Amino acid sequence: MPEDTTGIFKPEAKIVAKIFGDADSYYQIPDYQRPYSWEDEQIEQLWDDLYSAMKSGDESYFLGPVILIRRGDWFEVVDGQQRLTTLTILFCVLRDLYESKLKGLDKTLTTSIQDAIKSLVKEEPRLKLITQLHYQNEFENEILKKVNFPDRELTPKEKKQKKFINAALIFKQKLEELEGEGGIESIKKFTDYLLKKVEMITITCSQQG
Fold it and tell me: Is the dihedral of CA 46, 121, 69, 34 positive or negative?
């Protein structure tokens, strides 16, 4: 007789602002997961998909499912770590390049960005990479605290070694191009769309075998 899985898996559609901003939105990438591995093509594809959806006036954009296991007051990420990590890097780039400019237009937007990176209530990072200790240290020191933008282009070897910074540099270039097209209002529009119109489905396993 097939096992009854009713109640074990709970799917829920959430906008990005809730994925990273709910009271229980704390995620850990476990040590059995591979390290962050997205290359230029995947990062640029994510940007292009988000930008195209916003430009087309799509009511919403679906960014795929995230599979989680509830572990007390945080979630273990089974699937979706590359997207969650990449979005966190994007938030950090927005914070460091545009926080002061956006604050004058919409203070709640800058607050949402800050809260998506590190809870304003618990002062805990929303995402922790525990795949390897040095990855978490690198993520915190080069991205979460403040993006450590290099003053030159990365070499092909550095691109492979510094994947967090490489993603940040790609987003920096894309955002600066966007600002060049439409000023700070275009950055506000994109950020607003990202937080409020982009959706993911969280599939949470609440029962431990």
Answer: positive
* Tokens at 113, concatenated: 């960005």
Least confident of 6-10, 89-93, 94-98, 133-137: 6-10
Please give the C-alpha separations between residue 51 and each of 9, 101, 125, 147, 175, in angstroms, as whole numbers. 32, 20, 26, 22, 10
76: which strand partners? 28, 69
pTM here? 0.93
| Cα separation, 145 vs 164, whole angstroms | 13
**130 falls in which pLDDT band (50, 70, 90)?**
confident
Rounded Cα distance, 17 and 198, in Å: 9
- Cα distance between residue 97 and residue 99, in whole Å: 6
Q: What strand order describes the sheet that includes 9-15?
A: 9-15, 198-205, 61-71, 74-79, 27-29, 127-129
Q: Which whole-number Å values give the CA distances from 64 to 43, 48, 198, 199, 203, in the listed order?
A: 15, 15, 10, 8, 11
Closest CA to 51 of 169, 168, 175: 175
Q: Which amino acid is at 93?
A: V
53-88 pLDDT per residue, tens = 999 999 999 999 999 999 989 999 999 999 999 999
